[in-house]
Specification:
N-(1-d-carboxylethyl)-l-norvaline Dehydrogenase, domain 2; 8 strands; 12% strand; Rossmann fold; 13 helices; mainly alpha; 3-stranded mixed β-sheet; 273 residues
Amino acid sequence: MAGFLSRSGHDVVVYNRTTAKAEAWCDEYTGSVALTPFEAARDVDVVFCCVGNDDDVREVLIGERGALQGLSAGAVVVDHTTASAELARELYKDCKARSIDFIDAPLSGGQAGAENGKLTIMVGGDQAVFDRVSPLMDCYAKAITLIGPAGSGQMAKMVNQICIAGVVQGIAEGLHFAMRAGLDPAKVIASISKGAAQSWQMENRWETMIKGEFEFGFAVDWMRKDLGMTLAEAERIGAKLEMAKLVDSYYGEVQALGGNRWDTSSLIARLEK
């Protein structure tokens, strides 16, 4: 994502907690390395943040050497982390108190989407701020949508994860059934992927799923983190997520098989073990 910004002619400063990774980035792209988030944020117009969870976001933004300490009034913080909606609303208020703008902008599309500049971005925040930064995000995205006020982007990402959980579980069970029935999975997928059952997950993951290969993207640990936040938010707003809760428990079984870093298509492993 930073590479697409650089190649689009923007001045980019990168920070990574593993400095060697930031230095390697500079070997491939035009830009400079900062040793702290504070240094990365000095004299810049926009900070893009994409880390692991709520605590990580707080550390890089509002920690002792956090980015907010280095930003000037009028700057914008774009948080691409999949984090809680509560944190997004908290940071929105904190930034406003500092005369800084903030949007929550979680991503969908995985590693491949980032590398190909084809991410989908769900945004929460103010229209004027969205209009200001969307041309920058357009450098690495295929679709950018302002969902609503602060926190709305994170809530939309929760909807995304709910839907993916159900789709992947359905594909896992379908493939498991096909193999137990003695059907040729390739022929089955060739047929049903042209109809109402079609999905990105089906077309891109069915073959590796039946081979037991799960090294292609979003890790089970991260999916459980996302579903945990989603289930907590569902309880807060009174939404019933029966399927999501069940699939989250299935991912727990995958973790017990040693699949913490397998990608989310590994749901089939617990059926085939």
